[in-house]
TrEMBL record, chains A, B:
A Pfam cross-reference name: GST_N_2
PROSITE patterns xref list: GST_CTER, GST_NTER
Name of the protein in question: Glutathione S-transferase
InterPro entries: Glutathione-S-Trfase_C-like (IPR010987), Glutathione-S-Trfase_C_sf (IPR036282), Glutathione_S-Trfase (IPR040079), Glutathione_S-Trfase_N (IPR004045), Gtt2-like_C (IPR034346), Gtt2-like_N (IPR034345), Thioredoxin-like_sf (IPR036249)
Matches recorded under PANTHER family: GLUTATHIONE S-TRANSFERASE GSTA (PTHR44051:SF8), GLUTATHIONE S-TRANSFERASE-RELATED (PTHR44051)
Lineage: Bacteria, Pseudomonadati, Pseudomonadota, Alphaproteobacteria, Hyphomicrobiales
Chain ranges of the GST C-terminal domain: 86-203
Domain of life: Bacteria
Location of the GST N-terminal domain: 1-81
Length: 203, 203
């Protein structure tokens, strides 16, 4: 088994943090995103969508999509449960993981890709108007998260979950995207300090 | 239990098709998207993100996000399995459901929202350049799906899954989005005819 990794990019980081929380070690193969290696012929055979991460099993089967890779490991190593427990718990983790992914992580990525000079070759065409339409929605979602976190320690409830991983990676990706955290979001700040202090956050 | 539904919109349809495949009946409450009822005060208390569908349980718990609602029912009624079986099967359904959602359904929705005159009040601001950047990616993903479907009956493998539901809804939403299906995609056409003929497709 080997994991095609992509350094500091948000999606590869999600999988590494997930594996660290589970205590699982998987051999990494670095794909150099800076050199657009994920768009080369060799990696396109592994993932025709030219995105990292990708997990290659010993029989050659390929799993792409960070959350799909995480779910594979959740099935093999159920503890600690990072996708929730029971029908309602599982649904609420899925709901929050998706809310955070669509409204925060994807939003931050759009702002980054459509405004950052370093993304000119990767994101063709850049559409700055799309970044500007997205930015206020990101800020609005951060305020919603702050209100939610007033009532519970983690994004999806009482336990740390994959939704916290997506949110952590998204908040940290606001820096290269040049989005400032709004002031006065005390609950979100408390949550952030707690998840960023976990050993997995350095994975 | 009641399901806040939204008529012909893609996400409410995904849940209704899923329930039909499972043979589950849930009382529906119609939310009038045409009148922007999902953005009103009453529905915003149910889902602050102002999106349908939403499932309200008898104890008042709310689950939003179509795929989270589907997963709730999968946990309660595992057969027929629509999220895959076993670690690899589950991961591959998740992978394909996500690929189809991000590269096809979301793309078609972006084209619709950012070009259709009827969406002027709902999508503010409309960014036509974003729709135009998205359109060729949708077509490219349809070609990829066609190549994949040369080797298997359904999107994620030998069995019908939630990935087929997302893909069916996305392909049918190409019509209001005014995206023509590229010609010559025989495998995709065979797949489409087979899933659109299932009784669940009229849900």
């Amino acid at each position: 088994m080997k994991l095609y990794d992509g350094g500091r990019a948000p999606n590869p980081r999600r999988v590494r943090i997930f594996l660290a929380e589970k205590g699982i070690e998987v051999p990494l193969v670095q794909v150099d995103i800076g050199k657009l290696e994920q768009k080369g012929t060799e990696f396109s055979r592994i993932n025709p969508l030219q995105q990292v991460p990708a997990l290659e099993l010993d029989d050659g089967a390929i799993i792409t999509e960070s959350i799909a890779i995480c779910r594979y490991f959740e099935e093999l190593h159920p503890e600690p449960a990072l996708f929730g427990r029971g029908a309602l718990g599982t649904a609420l983790v899925e709901m929050w993981q998706r809310r955070v992914e669509f409204h925060l992580l994807q939003g931050v990525q759009y702002v980054f890709r459509h405004t950052h000079p370093a993304m000119k070759e990767m994101e063709v065409p850049q559409v700055p108007a799309w970044a500007e339409a997205t930015r206020p929605r990101v800020l609005s979602f951060l305020r919603l998260l702050d209100r939610e976190l007033a009532g519970r320690p983690f994004i999806a409830g009482e336990e740390f979950s994959v939704a916290d991983i997506t949110a952590l990676v998204a908040v940290q990706f606001m820096k290269p995207a040049r989005i400032d955290m709004p002031e006065g979001l005390a609950h979100l700040e408390r949550w952030y300090n707690s998840v960023a202090a976990r050993p997995s956050a350095s994975a």
